[in-house]
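FAQ: What does the model actually see?

It sees only this:
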Amino acid sequence: MNKLQKFENFLKDVQQQYADEFSDLNEITQRYRRLADTHELLKRRQEQSERDTDKISGELDAFNRQAGIESLAQTNSIANEK
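And it is asked to produce this:
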């Protein structure tokens, strides 16, 4: 029995076990493709979200550093005026 025949037998078993969800073998392969495509899309979105989060985090760190520097400058200015 070759691999293709084994796979087809597997699909037939799945169809029989879940006859209420799959009326033919094409529905199983279509569902798989749809799930695989959706999975890939979600992975890309997650990666983009992680990049966006890293960028925003870096911007926040830079802002906080700059605010700290400005605060020290103001404190020094006030101290020098006294």
